Structure formats: structure tokens, C-alpha cells
Amino acid sequence: MASNRIASFGSNDSGYESGIVEVFEEPSCPALKTPDHAKEMARHRQHLMASELSRRDAEDYQQDMLEHMLKMDIETMPDVDAIDIQTEIQWFMRPYLLDFLVEAHSAFQLLPETLFLTINLLDRYCSKRVVYKRHYQLVGCAALLIAAKYGDKKEKVPTIKELKSMCCSLYDDDMFLQMEWHVLSTLGWAIGHPTVDSFMRLAVKDNIYDPEAENLTLFILEIALYHREFVSKQASTLALSALALARHILGRPQSRAVEFGSRYCSTTVMELLQKVQEPSEILSRKYASVRYSGVSRVLTAYLAQKAAMSASARTPITPTYELTPPSAAAAAKSAGPEYFRSYATPQKPQFPTMVQHGLYTPPITPEGEMFGVTQKTFNAPNQYVPPTPTPNTVSHQYSSQYPASIQQWSGESY
């Protein structure tokens, strides 16, 4: 490969202030012709001038531009309650139409904002007109055609023939033109909706360029298009919340409190985190490519890690054999009688303790006013004092001799 240094790139006619540009070209490639080279340099010079003017205008009128975008965001918001009362189209049909529009958007290689503007035009039209089920795809194609004409280059705009082919010739050519005019007239030709990606770029313009974080933010925002909960949510809130969630997933620092990116809504972040659990297969395949930094795989790995951590937190740790306490039966067998004496509830003996030669002498009832004549009807055996027992006779409280002695004693008096 040969290396040629073109010094004319640093001249005053080229639009560059100074410097030498080193161009590598194959020896077999023909040299650029002079007219083509001049046109290319003029186009590049215009691009640099436009970028510089745009940067200066953005710095001078940034606050005014932001206020206008927030105002238009509210004015061009769809009405989800009006879409709910549609007679034929239902919310379960929305993912099928969006998958079709995402594939068409990728096939024509349109700008990211074109897809978000397409869905906004579709939802705003469905908020004001009754849409039949057989025309739902036709309205989506008309919205895609309008959005592409509004933001993309002319050579990128799909033709009626291409849209008809993608719809399998379900609609005639005139139907696309009629629906395009009907959508524009219904919306009052108000197409300038500030899309979510424009708010995202405004939030990251002062930060270091991070393509992975921006692509993951776009992935989350496109997932949000599929769900009813985000149809009537402001684009600014949705964009900043998706950016905050993407930075959290990637471990990036959040915006400072003085920056525009710090105005995200925590509730919206949690809602987005719940909806990204099961993204569309079309979107996952789209954002798995190198062009989008493979962020769909990054999101899948993050969700799998969180699921594993949650499962481990719910599952109790199985104790080892050494730490397992012995069962009650094993403890009783190993401890013996002492085990029951140490843990049993103390019980009061119900009968007098036996002695070797007879019973303990019961107490004598004291005499006094409280123990008068009426007290003699009390249980007599409690006041009985047996004679001194002999070693050959053992008295027992359940013996048959005890009632006889009671009868002999009951006839006596004090």
C-alpha cells in the first residue's frame, strides 16, 4: 500500500486552516479526477461550516430550544384513553405492527428518530380517528412514509412500490397516497414532534462520547414503544429515565445535579426496568449487531445476573452435618434420665411420700374461734393420729385396715 502526502489539503482553497493530510491508497486504484475532487472538497467544506454554525447556535439558543421542545412535546402527545375506545384495533395487535415497522425501518436504513416519529404519528392518528383492523398496517406505512420524508435524505425515503411489496400487495398504490394525505390532514400538518432520541442527545452532549450507553438507551426506548404505559408519557421524561437506566446497567456514573440529564423520574426508571425483561425478538436481533455495540446481549447478561442474585437470596443455606443439631430422641437417649429432669416442668407430688415404717404424722388442728363445733364436720381422716406403728406392721393409705380404724375413731369424742 502506497502513501501519498497531499499538501494541497492544507492550502487556503481547501477550507482547512493548516496541516497535511496523509492519504493511503492502493496502487491499482485510479487517481481522483480534478472535477470530482473539487466537488468533494467543496461538500466537505460546507459540512464543516454547517457544523460550526450549528454548534454556535446551540450554545446561544440552547435554553430557548429546550423550552420549545418541551412545549411541543406536550402538544404532540397521543391520548391513550382515546385509543382505548377503538372498536376494532386492540393493544395486543400493537407488537405485531411494531415488529413490521422496525424491520422496514432497518431495511431502508433510516435514521433513529424516524422510527420514533413514525410511532408518534401512528398513535396521534389513532387518538383522533376510528381505524379499522384491515387498515392498521396501512396507517403504519403512511406514518413511516411521512416520517422518512420529514427527517431522512431523499434517496433513503421508501417508495410506494417498496411499501406495497412489503405489505404483500395487500393495498393498492392509491391507498398509500390517500392514507398519507388523510393522516396529515387529521394531524393538522403538525409533524414536528421532539422525539426521545433528541432529548437523549441533549442530555449527553456535554459528556464524553459513549456509544454503548447511547445504543442501550435507544434499545430501552424502542422496547417502551411496545407498551401502553408509555404512550402518553412525555418524551423528555422517558428519554432521561432510559438514559439513567442504561448507565446503571453499564455501571456508568449518572449526570450531575446541575445537568439536564439528572431530571429523570425514578418511577419511570422502575417501570422501564420491568418492561425490559422480555424484549421483542426483532429488537433483540437488531441490537445484537456490532453496529449497536451488542447491547441486547449486555442487557440479557445483566438480567440473568440479577435473577441469579435474587434466587440465591431466596434459597436458604443448607447446614452442614457438623452444625446439624441432634434430634430430640437422640438427645434423650444420650443424656439419660438427667435429660428429662433438666427440661421437665417440676411437678408437685400428689400423695405423701412413703417412709419405711408408716406415714408422716399429720398436723393437729388448732383450737380457737375459727375452729368451732361446725368444724367437726370436716374430713375426719385429716385429724386422725394413728398409734405408734410396730416394725411388723406397715400401714398404707389404700390398705383395707384404714377404714376400720376410721370407724373406731369416729365414735370417740374430744
Automatic annotation (TrEMBL):
Originating species: Capronia coronata CBS 617.96
Superkingdom field: Eukaryota
Domain Cyclin-like: 99-185, 197-281
Stored Gene3D superfamilies: Cyclin-like
Molecular function per GO: cyclin-dependent protein serine/threonine kinase regulator activity
Taxonomic lineage: Eukaryota, Fungi, Dikarya, Ascomycota, Pezizomycotina
Transmembrane segments: none
A biological process from GO: cell cycle G1/S phase transition
Statement: the UniProt record of this protein carries the keyword Cell cycle: yes
Domain (Cyclin C-terminal) ranges: 194-301
Keywords per UniProt: Cell cycle, Cell division, Cyclin
Family: Belongs to the cyclin family.
Protein name as it appears in the record: Uncharacterized protein
InterPro entries registered for this protein in UniProt: Cyclin (IPR039361), Cyclin-like_dom (IPR013763), Cyclin-like_sf (IPR036915), Cyclin_C-dom (IPR004367), Cyclin_N (IPR006671), Cyclins_cyclin-box (IPR048258)
